[in-house]
UniProtKB/TrEMBL annotation:
The protein's name: Polar amino acid transport system permease protein
PROSITE patterns per UniProt: ABC_TM1 (PS50928)
GO MF entries: transmembrane transporter activity
Record-linked InterPro entries: AA_ABC_transptr_permease_3TM (IPR010065), ArtM/GltK/GlnP/TcyL/YhdX-like (IPR043429), MetI-like (IPR000515), MetI-like_sf (IPR035906)
Stored PANTHER family: GLUTAMINE TRANSPORT SYSTEM PERMEASE PROTEIN GLNP, MEMBRANE COMPONENT OF AMINO ACID ABC TRANSPORTER
Entry annotated with the keyword Coiled coil: no
Gene3D superfamilies: MetI-like
Organism of origin: Aquamicrobium lusatiense
Compartments reported by the entry: Cell inner membrane; Cell membrane
Biological role: Part of the binding-protein-dependent transport system for glutamine; probably responsible for the translocation of the substrate across the membrane.
Superkingdom of this protein's organism: Bacteria
GO biological process: amino acid transport
Keywords (A to Z) from UniProt: Amino-acid transport, Cell membrane, Membrane, Transmembrane, Transmembrane helix, Transport
Length: 356
């Protein structure tokens, strides 16, 4: 009769987790008190540091509880093994190891979060006063939010242009046959060039170069349209590659079946290939448009009064960067929901493929 293997070792891991949790509590108390003692100019900030230390100690106690639970399961596993209950011993050992790893994860997260907050509070809260002054953030928030509408408008108009022009570039790059070779060459050259040149250089060349050319219609545009042109030219190259990857992922049999039924190349694209490819490229396309939204902050180099430029006016008048933090918060507010939406779409696509 084959005997069962003994339970995996868990005592050492549990002891280490317990010592780590104790060390975490001591470190939180010592560092928190040291930082609090260094805050002398703001009673409110000193009170906040106390609450941070209390929260850190509470989370540290939770970590210690998980470590003690791991140690308890480890001792139970040893008792069950001595009694010959191998299966029960293995289960207890697995629980002990799981609790130990939970302790490590909690400790790591607490250390990172606590260290970041203490970094803001250290040196008498100078970092907080430089980047996170509540009164300056409140006084500048309304004007910056109004200017942020410019960023949203630039992203939306550029996004529409990029969707259309990127698709044209992708189709041009994939035109088959010798007759399409010159078109393919031009499309590849454009895509490679615009992906190689930084967006801020394109913005600078268009924003300051076109007004100097005295070209009809173009030279008389305002700074917002120059920004839209630059962003559209740059991101259409990236979107073209996203389109191309989606089109190339469609099995060749789809092309062959459509062409055998008498459909032309463009009809095959329109009715068979693109509808399937679009579903595949939506998540990476959204990621590209998130990057486009963030790059609208670059338009300040050509004088567009966006949120970042508005924040710089406040920063230069107050010698403080809290207004720039407001811009960062606004971008976070509109970007994170989109990022989570992309993640949801990727998970939904993966679950559908598994179901199929």
């Amino acid at each position: 009769m084959t005997s069962l293997s003994p339970a995996p070792r868990s005592r050492g891991l549990a002891v280490f987790a317990t010592l780590l949790a104790i060390a975490l509590l001591v470190a939180v108390a010592a560092v928190g008190e040291s930082v609090r003692a260094g805050i002398t100019t703001s009673p409110e900030l000193s009170t906040f540091s106390i609450w941070v230390m209390v929260a850190g100690l509470a989370l540290g106690a939770l970590t210690l509880w998980a470590a003690v639970s791991a140690l308890r399961h480890s001792f139970r596993s040893a008792r069950e093994e001595a009694a010959g209950e191998v299966l029960a011993s293995r289960a207890s050992a697995a629980q002990s190891r799981q609790q130990s790893f939970v302790t490590f994860g909690l400790a790591f997260a607490i250390v990172i979060a606590f260290a970041l907050i203490q970094l803001v509070l250290i040196n008498d809260g100078n970092i907080q006063r430089t980047f996170l002054r509540g009164d300056l953030m409140a006084s500048s928030a309304l004007d910056i939010a109004r200017a942020f509408i410019v960023n949203i408008r630039l992203a939306f108009i550029s996004g529409v242009i990029v969707l259309v022009f990127g698709l044209v570039l992708a189709i041009a790059r994939m035109i088959p046959g010798k007759a399409g070779a010159p078109v393919r060459f031009l499309a590849v050259a454009y895509i490679d060039l615009m992906r190689a040149v930084p967006a801020i250089i394109v913005l600078y060349l268009i924003g300051f170069g076109l007004p100097l050319t005295n070209l009809p219609l173009l030279s008389g545009l305002n700074a917002e349209w120059f920004a839209i042109m630059a962003l559209s030219l740059t991101y259409s190259a990236y979107v073209a590659e996203v389109y191309r990857s989606g089109i190339a992922s469609i099995h060749p049999s789809q092309w062959a079946a459509s062409r055998s039924l008498g459909f032309s190349y463009l009809q095959t694209l329109r009715f068979f290939i693109l509808p399937q490819a679009m579903r595949l490229v939506i998540p990476p396309m959204l990621s590209t448009f998130i990057a486009l939204q963030k790059d609208t902050s670059l338009v300040n180099v050509i004088g567009t009064l966006d949120a970042f430029n508005q924040a710089k006016f406040y920063a230069s008048s107050t010698f403080n960067l809290s207004s720039v933090t407001v811009v960062a918060i606004l971008f976070v507010i509109i970007t994170i929901p989109q990022t989570r939406f992309v993640d949801w779409m990727l998970e939904r696509g993966a679950s559908r493929r598994k179901g199929a």
